[in-house]
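Recall the central idea of this unit: under ordinary conditions, the amino acid sequence of a chain determines the structure it adopts. In this exercise we apply that idea directly, starting from the sequence alone.
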Amino acid sequence: MSLFFLLWACTQSKSILDTAEVTDTGEQDSGVTSEPESTDTGDTDVSDTGIPSPSSEPSNEEPPENVRMDIRPNALLVTTLEEEGELHVDCPFFVDEEQIFDASIGIGTVPVDGVSSPSTGVYQFANSGNYTITCTGQYENSTIEASVDIVVLNSTQPPEAAQMSLGLMQAQNALDSILASDGGSDEDLVLAFSEFTASRELFPSEPFGPFRTLPEAFWPDTQRLLDDGIVRNTDDDLLPNQVVLLADRIQALRTYNEQLDPLNITEDDISNIETLTSLFSVQVDAFVALEPSIHGWRENATIMEEQIFTPLQVLTMHTLDLNEIWVRDEAGELIPPPFGFVSLMVGISARHSIQMNIASVLYKDVFESIDATINNLILMEAIEMSLPPQGDISMDYIQASASHGIALPGYDTSIYGSGFSDNAGLNTFLIVGVDWQGAVDGIMSDC
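Accordingly, the structure predicted from this sequence is:
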């Protein structure tokens, strides 16, 4: 079995993202109309996606076994159009594992409301929520589909999560392309390696948690949630322990990766990484199976950032370093095609690809669950998405000097109250009063 087939087979596991599922829908149940393919680029509407028209003679033929179609989004998490979010989708079609470019392929989204497509394969989303992206192609009178679910983040969720998803997907795809170039041309390797090194710039530079930093008054307090019938559930109590267990698996991978010498890999290294990757996958499955309420997500937001998201960022960047080192060493000299990798690091890289796939699913499933929780709060009018927040902000009194001529050391200008954010940068106050401009000018000019 070639390395390419090994990678493709490994990614079919239910515990990680299946990006290459091919479903023979047949002509009669494909749900595709017989309208001719449109030339409309869909600048404002994607209801017409150019999905290929079925044959006038319906067929129930299954696609030949040597035919498949993948769907490759550039991320599983994306921000809304308001935050300049954009999803890119590619639908490569393969015959005998060779990509062909003359297949009739279209792309659709469900739902279509609020979705625009400024160019082929590029999608923008006005609204947050879950979307299914489907590639539909035809080959020898059979319809072939491949679908993937993506999440458009709402305004309580950090845009860094979308950056992380983008970086992981691009790095994984590029690493797979590097490995698939084994035995091929230098040009394929150089292109894949360039994409791999470029993926580093896509990752967020700062740590992030499951929520943006928002004023505390944005969130309903515990009593308000209870009054609205939002009570704690069993998974809220299980979540802290699952965070610890998942953190342990991530740390185990970090520890082993950090002691690896990418230029001197052994069979034991491959076996150990495979075992650690499998344990990581199992724990991710257990973690994303939980369905905490907003109580659990909010209570554990800090430890999720510190023990899961941040260590996973560190692990990913170190993984990129390891793979860049060995590929540069192995293919640093111009090798007349066909070249071939001989390092056992190939086996490690295959597992690293799977690790990035697992991490992509972890982020996607966690933020999908939180998104659903937030949407429920919005429907119940427990939170107001418009800012400034509509929560209970109270100013008890303001202490400020009215003197124009002196400033007393230790005399603090302060506002005392409740509902403010712990992040001082999120607290903005506008003081309006009679002759306030003159008073401020006097203080500023005299201090």
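Residues 345-379 form the longest helix (35 residues).
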